[in-house]
């Protein structure tokens, strides 16, 4: 019975380990732009930036960005509309904690440096004329349990 428990623990550790092995460096994100009254703004030129690079898109779009421990900024511009600015907070993924607990931290250091141990919110809803902050932590909470922030008040 102990052998079975040991094998099960080993498989669990390996499966939840290094995000560099289990995750991509890139994360697909949905970028949308809306006016302050909630109407879709199409073909807004959006720039997404973090310490790993810069990406361009026209709203609405899916963009693959390089994961990072640093927050992601999104700026959208369109003639006739005020600029929209969004900051997406980067949060540690579950694999980072597995690395720290079971791997002695070496995997966590690698994942931190590569950015693979972090995630952004999947949806980036830019509101033209506003500056908003969105957090991955709020995305993972059930509806109704989310704290009030500039993005959801």
- What integer value in Å does the Rg equal? 18 Å
Written as H for each helix and E for each strand, in order along the chain, the element string is HHEEEEEEEHHEEEH
CATH architecture tag: Sandwich
Give the CATH H-level superfamily: Carboxypeptidase-like, regulatory domain
Distance between the termini: 53 Å
Low-confidence stretches: 3-22, 95-102, 106-115, 146-153
CATH topology assignment: Immunoglobulin-like
The pLDDT mean sits at 76
What is the number of domains? 1
Strand order of the largest sheet: 3-2-5-6-10
* Estimated share of beta-strand residues: 25-35%
Biggest sheet record: 5 strands, mixed
Number of helices: 5
Described by the principal axes of the CA atoms, the overall outline is: globular
Q: Can you offer a commentary on this structure?
A:
With 153 residues, this protein is an alpha+beta fold. It has a single domain, classed as Sandwich (Immunoglobulin-like), CATH 2.60.40. It has 5 helices and 10 strands; from the N terminus they run ααβββββββααβββα. The protein has helices spanning 2-15, 19-22, 94-102, 106-114, 136-139, and strands at residues 26-34, 45-50, 53-58, 61-66, 72-77, 84-89, 91-92, 118-119, 123-127, 131-135. The strands form 3 sheets. It has a 5-stranded mixed β-sheet with strand order 3-2-5-6-10. β5 (72-77) and β6 form a beta hairpin. α3 packs antiparallel against α4. The longest helix is centred in the N-terminal third of the chain and has 14 residues, at 2-15. It starts with a helix and ends in a 14-residue tail after the last helix.
């Amino acid at each position: 019975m102990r052998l079975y428990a040991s094998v099960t623990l080993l498989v669990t550790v390996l499966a939840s380990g290094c995000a560099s092995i289990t995750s991509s460096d890139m994360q697909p994100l949905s970028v949308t732009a809306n006016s302050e009254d909630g109407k879709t703004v199409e073909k807004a030129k959006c720039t997404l930036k973090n310490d790993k690079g810069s990406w361009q898109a026209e709203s609405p779009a899916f963009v693959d960005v390089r994961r990072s421990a640093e927050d992601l900024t999104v700026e959208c511009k369109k003639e006739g509309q005020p600029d929209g600015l969004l900051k997406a907070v980067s949060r540690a993924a579950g694999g980072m904690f597995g690395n720290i607990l079971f791997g002695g931290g070496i995997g966590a250091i690698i994942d931190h440096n590569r950015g693979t141990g972090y995630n952004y919110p999947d949806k980036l809803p830019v509101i033209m004329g506003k500056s908003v902050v969105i957090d991955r932590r709020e995305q993972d909470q059930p509806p109704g349990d989310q704290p009030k922030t500039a993005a959801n008040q």
